[in-house]
Amino acid sequence: MKIRVNSCNKIKGGYEVMVEYIDIFSLKLYPDGKGGQLGDRGNIDGIKILKVTDDKVVLENEIASGVYDYEIDMERREDIAIQHSAEHLFSGIAKEKFGLNNVGFRMTETITTIDLDSNDISEEIIKKLMDEINLAVKEGGMVETKICSIEEARKIELRKPISSKIQSDEIRIVKISNFDICACAGFHTGDLKDIRVVKLVSKEIKGKNTRFSIIAGQRAIDDYEAKSKIITDLNHRFSCRDNEILSCIEKQFQNYESLKKEFNEMNQKYAKILYDTMDQKIELINGNEMVFLEEKKEIINEIKKIFDKNLTLIGLADENIMLLSNTLDCGHLIGEIKKISPDLKGGGKGKQGNLKGNLEEYEIKEILKKIL
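Now predict its structure.
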């Protein structure tokens, strides 16, 4: 297939080109976002297509004006058709059999989201909905499209009425077997069996609505396989059966919480010992009593809770420099330190402050000698 590139301009993230289709039998690139659908991908003269609008294409690399061969990623287009048809089927059955209306739809590279107009849909209804959807897929049914005038379209009982904002003289109607009929310009399968399977990935309440995330076709099969592998790995790790995984994880979680509690208690005891012996480590810097302590951040944070000595503590934990003082203004001190070492980040106020950066203890002492 041939396409004419009329101009090419550098933009953020690529090159925007104006295109013109010169062969009336060529497939046109489908624009991103049209009807809530993903756009086409492929290449022009081997240069990767990143985005498509009605008359422009964003390419990965620069291209000169001229006529070129172009290719559309048909596997991607087939996947989009499957996801889009699954959305129609989901929305049609939700309305027809459960009185739930699609009030929002979005397709992404990984999932399709559908918002239904209720925030009180029971698990029983959701299961019945998914069972009905996959039964329809199993039994199959024709997916038909036709072009008709605006006047004709408005006489058809569509799932969603045609917006008064539509200015086009013609409308494309898509009929999904006996389950759904609506105006749509996107890709669809020829038969419901082509969808293969529809899987509910998640659901969440969004105000007055419930948002469902679904995948279909190969996306769903890949997801089943990936999760099956995770389950198999967990079986081996815990030496258990599928139905025992959750109880094993719960037991591990309880053990973790118990160990975490013991660890925190040990930190508190250790921090108290360090605090009680801190006076033995006092150093004088220009008449100011200071203690330098290289410990884990958790230990210094425990000391922070009980610190009431009339001295300044400089805690060194990895790249963190933690200041505690009842004799100096930590905010002022940090400001002066940053004037000498502007690469340091952080701040403080009154009795506490924090800095982040790579400074050794001897370097901090040298700085303090200059500013105190």
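The chain has three domains: 2-72, 77-225, 271-371.
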